[in-house]
Amino acid sequence: MRVLVVDDEPQIVRALVINLKARHYEVDAAPDGATALRLAAARHPDVVILDLGLPDMDGVEVIRGLRGWTRVPVLVLSARQTSDEKVEALDAGADDYVTKPFGMDELLARLRAAVRRAEPGGHSEAPVIVTTPSFTVDLAAKKVNREGRDVRLTPTEWHLLEVLVRNTGRLVSQKQLLQEVWGPSYGTETNYLRVYMAQLRRKLEADPSHPRHFITEPGMGYRFEG
């Protein structure tokens, strides 16, 4: 498993290289966007860890450059805090976003999840039955069962649930959810998402006010955790 680390901070690169190699990943490192794009083309990494603040170009440009020819998972690692910048990276094709300072364990867990989704049989061919401690989702039968009873969902609730479950563990941007569930002309009606997520939590979460499975990433989107 080959990882491309793109960051201009030597201490972060060193920490990532040490931790990744200790877990038997092969690691390439690039200090800027141009080197990153060259290395990606030459070495074909299985996953990219990318800082947005690079000396020669914005990390979003690197994502767009990669997306021109590869679907390699891109995990953004950045000190930028504003949701607009995070959403821009996700909409450009990033798979996930971790904010600096970060916990190494969380970063590695997100990395493993991104790689799993990209593998044959990953989220594009998601398991047809997803089981959580609280409920079970049968994607093929379009059914949800909680405590032995089928849960009635509206078509919109089901569609929203299906998109999130097929992307388990991945942050799905508000714009992506709106366009997948309501259509391509939607993208800013975040109040729709709030209403329907509240309904899903009420029907499926053990404690809707403290959700375990339907997680809000404020200003960015939602994540389903199994």
UniProtKB/TrEMBL annotation:
Domain Response regulatory: 2-115
Domain of life of the organism encoding this protein: Bacteria
Classification via SMART domains: REC, Trans_reg_C
SUPFAM superfamilies: CheY-like
Keywords: DNA-binding, Phosphoprotein
DNA-binding residues: 126-226
Listed InterPro entries: CheY-like_superfamily (IPR011006), OmpR/PhoB-type_DNA-bd (IPR001867), Sig_transdc_resp-reg_receiver (IPR001789), WalR-like (IPR039420), WH-like_DNA-bd_sf (IPR036388)
OmpR/PhoB-type domain sequence ranges: 126-226
Modified residues (4-aspartylphosphate): D51
Pfam families assigned to the protein according to its UniProt record, in alphabetical order: Response_reg, Trans_reg_C
Coiled coil: none
Gene3D superfamilies given in the database record: 3.40.50.2300, 6.10.250.690, Winged helix-like DNA-binding domain superfamily/Winged helix DNA-binding domain (1.10.10.10)
PANTHER family: KDP OPERON TRANSCRIPTIONAL REGULATORY PROTEIN KDPE, REGULATOR OF RPOS
Name used for this protein in its record: Response regulator
Source species of the chain: Streptomyces pactum
